[in-house]
């Protein structure tokens, strides 16, 4: 068995020891070294050639974000960020994921040892998944929002998107192609509390439409994008005629709350056939069954292709079970969604005149 070789980078000797102890207990993982700062880590990367780095956000001399950008530009490799479960930690982590970090592990500000023991399996799984991720060199992009399309008619279309590992970067790319008057859009991205708040704010600054965390009872409207709040509830849509967001505080589904399957299944019941479903990069199978339900109900369905996925898990399963009509590279998906919306609106108007 080839073990995943991990380098731990953290300025706290206590955290380095705790992380090393937890990771070393997993027989599929080998901790090859630990570094207190970016300078030491740079040399260890050259000497040890690890498969994965765990990287602290806050470090002396050069912080984690600065070091991450250098790694992703000069020697791209899988990185799992270690950040605090705070608003500030969430904001920095969202920036790190946009730079190309594969995933993150959130820790509390106190009782870190007990927290790591409780979530050891999760941490080890994130490291293993990161080792198999498709990592690309970071290229700073001019995030120019999509131009206004005054002739675009979103009608009563609803777009539902699900994503997980690699989803931050993927969603930014997809939504950058949405015009200001885009169809009502609902999104489930696997994230804990605080992190979705920061991510929604980030998307709102980068995209033409209005992006916000979904609120219970919010009416779905064109030009609005609703992101499932992390950790505490699933996002569903309900209603006849007027569709609304509903936050459902039930247990995890497929190990996730919010769950993509929960969202997609609700869209299949409430909004098909005028809906479009999109499944993006992520580990596991959450969303595959729900997307199949959407397709059976008459929705158009899209999957991200393997070459452009950070982790080709969720889209792969959806493709294998027949939930995906067609796969596209990430940079094509946003425009294809708009094209499908326009085609469906034209077909609907044509049917009415017959």
Automatic annotation (TrEMBL):
Catalytic residues (UniProt): 164, 190, 286
PTM field: Phosphorylated by CheA. Phosphorylation of the N-terminal regulatory domain activates the methylesterase activity.
EC number(s) on file: 3.1.1.61, 3.5.1.44
Gene Ontology CC: cytoplasm
Gene3D superfamilies xrefs: 3.40.50.2300, Methylesterase CheB, C-terminal domain
Location of the protein in the cell: Cytoplasm
Name of the molecule in the record: Protein-glutamate methylesterase/protein-glutamine glutaminase
Name of encoding gene: cheB
């Amino acid at each position: 068995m080839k073990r995943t070789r991990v380098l731990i980078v953290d300025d706290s000797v206590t955290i380095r020891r705790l992380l090393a102890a937890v990771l070393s207990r997993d027989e599929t993982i080998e901790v090859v070294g630990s570094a207190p700062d970016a300078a030491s880590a740079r040399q260890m990367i050259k000497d040890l050639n690890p498969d994965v780095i765990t990287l602290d956000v806050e470090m002396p001399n050069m912080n984690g974000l600065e070091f991450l950008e250098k790694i992703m530009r000069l020697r791209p490799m899988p990185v799992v960020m270690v950040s605090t479960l705070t608003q500030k930690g969430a904001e920095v982590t969202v920036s790190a994921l946009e730079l190309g970090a594969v995933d993150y592990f959130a820790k509390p500000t106190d009782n870190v040892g007990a927290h790591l023991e409780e979530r050891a399996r999760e941490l080890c799984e994130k490291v293993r998944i990161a080792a198999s991720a498709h990592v690309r060199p970071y290229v700073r992009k001019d995030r120019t929002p999509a131009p206004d399309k005054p002739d675009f008619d979103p009608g009563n279309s609803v777009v539902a998107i699900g994503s997980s590992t690699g989803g931050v970067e993927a969603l930014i790319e997809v939504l950058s192609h949405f015009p200001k008057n885009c169809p009502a859009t609902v999104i489930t991205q696997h994230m804990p509390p605080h992190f979705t708040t920061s991510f929604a704010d980030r998307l709102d600054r980068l995209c033409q439409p209005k992006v916000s965390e979904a609120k219970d009872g919010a009416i779905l409207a064109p030009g609005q994008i609703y992101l499932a709040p992390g950790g505490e509830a699933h996002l569903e849509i309900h209603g006849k005629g007027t569709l609304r967001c509903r936050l459902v505080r039930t247990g995890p589904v497929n190990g996730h709350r919010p769950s993509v399957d929960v969202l997609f299944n609700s869209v299949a019941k409430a909004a098909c056939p005028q809906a479009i479903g999109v499944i993006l990069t992520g580990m596991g199978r959450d969303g595959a069954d729900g997307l199949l339900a959407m397709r059976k109900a008459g929705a158009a369905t899209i999957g991200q292709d393997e070459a452009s996925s950070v982790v080709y898990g969720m889209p792969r399963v959806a493709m294998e079970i027949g939930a995906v009509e067609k796969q596209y590279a990430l940079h094509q998906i946003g425009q294809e969604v708009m094209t499908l919306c326009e085609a469906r609106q034209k077909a609907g108007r044509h049917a009415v005149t017959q």
